[in-house]
Design goal:
The complex is a heterodimer. Chain A has no helices and eleven strands. In chain A, a hairpin with a 5-residue loop joins strand 4 (29-37) and strand 5 (43-49). Helix content of chain A is 0%, strand content 57%. The N and C termini of chain A lie far apart (41 Å). The radius of gyration of chain A is 13 Å and the shape is globular. Chain A is an all-beta fold. In chain A, strands 2, 4, 5, 9, 10 and 11 form a six-stranded mixed sheet that branches. In chain A, strands 1-3-8-7-6 form a five-stranded antiparallel sheet, with no helix packed on it. Chain A has strands at residues 4-7, 10-14, 19-25, 29-37, 43-49, 55-58, 61-65, 71-76, 85-93, 101-102, 106-111. Chain B is mostly beta strands. Chain B is built from no helices and eleven strands. Chain B has strands at residues 4-7, 10-13, 19-25, 31-37, 44-50, 53-56, 64-67, 73-78, 87-94, 104-105, 109-113. In chain B, strands 2, 4, 5, 6, 9, 10 and 11 form a seven-stranded mixed sheet that branches. In chain B, strands 1-3-8-7 form a four-stranded antiparallel sheet, with no helix packed on it. Chain B is globular, with a radius of gyration of 13 Å. Chain B starts with a strand and ends with a strand. The chains are: A mainly beta, B mainly beta. At the A-B interface, strand 4, strand 5 and strand 9 of A face strand 5 and strand 10 of B.
């Protein structure tokens, strides 16, 4: 079945350093979504990418969808302690039934 | 504010004792989902309702059932919980199915089976 893997599983950075998480799907995706889950919290929708090669920015966060629509990345510039949490990508298979497949997640820890 | 509300936030129950988790939404969304999330893992979809149509995932145990009596409410019933069912249970909604709309999650119910 479809698998969506993220690397790294865990990243520890000093506040002010940059951070990137990578999302790779075993199949071509029709779209990719990104969610953030704070410790003890629930996933919160951040953004959706649909077009091949699409890049979107939200303040210090930059999201990219690969040309082949099989991978995506989230880059955070100058991390802050408020960025702590697990970042999940979630993709939908092209032509598949109606569901998102969540990636394995990347836990970000930011040391002040 | 429109939102997704789950009750209770925490539930402790005994092995084999039926338990029901509830979810309500004020977003008037057509789709309601139930996910199971174990520690340090991604949410795993159990099933979803698109309006009144129930869609079960192939690997969801028979022990897990769901009801959606109206647009606003959805319930997760675990008939005979086992120790392996200890997890966070997340309810989510979206306007349409198909994974091309954002999903809005509740705060979750943290279920412990003793």
């Amino acid at each position: 079945g479809q698998q969506v893997m993220q690397i790294p599983q865990y990243q520890h950075v000093q506040e002010g350093e940059d951070f990137t998480t990578y999302c790779n799907s075993s199949t071509t995706l029709s779209n990719i979504q990104w969610y953030k889950q704070r410790p003890g919290g629930h996933p919160v929708f951040l953004i959706q990418l649909v077009k091949s090669g699409e890049v979107k920015k939200q303040k210090r966060l930059t999201f990219q969808f690969g040309e082949a629509k099989k991978n995506s990345s989230l880059h955070i510039t100058a991390t802050q302690t408020t960025d702590v949490g697990t970042y999940f990508c979630a993709g939908r298979n092209r032509g598949a039934t109606n569901k998102l497949i969540f990636g394995t997640g990347t836990l970000l820890a930011v040391q002040p | 504010d429109a939102m997704v509300i789950q009750n209770p936030r925490y539930q402790v129950t005994q092995f084999g004792k039926p338990v029901t988790l509830s979810c309500s939404q004020t977003l008037n969304h057509n789709v309601m989902y139930w996910y199971q999330q174990k520690s340090s893992q991604a949410p795993k979809l159990l099933f979803h309702y698109y309006d009144k149509d129930f869609n079960n995932e192939a690997d969801t145990p028979d022990n897990f059932q769901s009801r959606r009596p109206n647009t606003s409410f959805c319930f997760l019933d675990i008939r005979s919980p086992g120790l392996g069912d200890t997890a966070m249970y997340l309810c989510a909604t979206s306007n349409e199915p198909g994974g091309n709309q954002p999903q809005h999650f509740g705060d979750g119910t943290r279920l412990s089976i003793l």
